[in-house]
Amino acid sequence: MKIHLAKSSGFCFGVKRAINISRRTAKSQDNVYMLGNIVHNEDVIKEIAKTGIKKIKKLRKGKKRVLLIRAHGTGIKILAKAHRLGFKVVDATCPMVKEIHKIAQDMESKGFKIIVIGDKKHDEVQGIIGQLKRKALIIDGARGIPKQSLQKIKKAVVLAQSTQNNDEVLKIVKILKRHIKMIKFFNTICKPTRTKQQEIKKMPLQNELMIIIGSKTSANTKRLYQISRSLNKKSFWVQSGQELKPRWFKGIKTVGVAAGASTPDSTMKAVISQIRRLR
Known about the structure:
It contains 11 helices and 12 strands.
């Protein structure tokens, strides 16, 4: 049985950067806190917890505290509150996500209605709309387009959560253009996501079985699995080697392996080692 690993598998630049910033901060500062997890991956979360960084749900007043902003970013109100409560802020937001924030703020200041294509409850989407003074419209799929209310929008700017499915985003934009006269589209899906999606469109057709590695909380991993599954029904999404089933590999000669942007190399190696043991 041959195992083919996607070249783009594993950490993207933004995730690597956020993890490195968190490690440096933990070494140089005491009382470091995060509102949630640094990235969406259980193995990374455990590693960061060992550094002493604490996860909290609410900001509370305290001396000499540090707030670490996660890779997904956060809204301006949360930042303002942190400063007001005396926190020192260390920003590990992905630079590509920061660029989306800038576009959103700039376009809103020019009178455009902001439309975000993304998962409504995702941290990144909440961070994007958290940059704005007025309420944004979030669309999480072609079926969720509120066509009647679109008629009231005179001019709009469309942005995308950086880990969205590129094909789906373009499909939604095409529909929006039919209903809004003046519309600008900034394709803010990041390059690592596009590269991973381009690979995953080929691999399921070149291999008998696909294994997608990543957390079930990871949006970009979910997208990889959805694309793979649409092309090859023998596609399976696992977080660790323990989830692999021997029956999946019976009679299989070629296995494709891909991993999400927040999946560590150690997890990928462990899964591949387990696949080899199941041969």
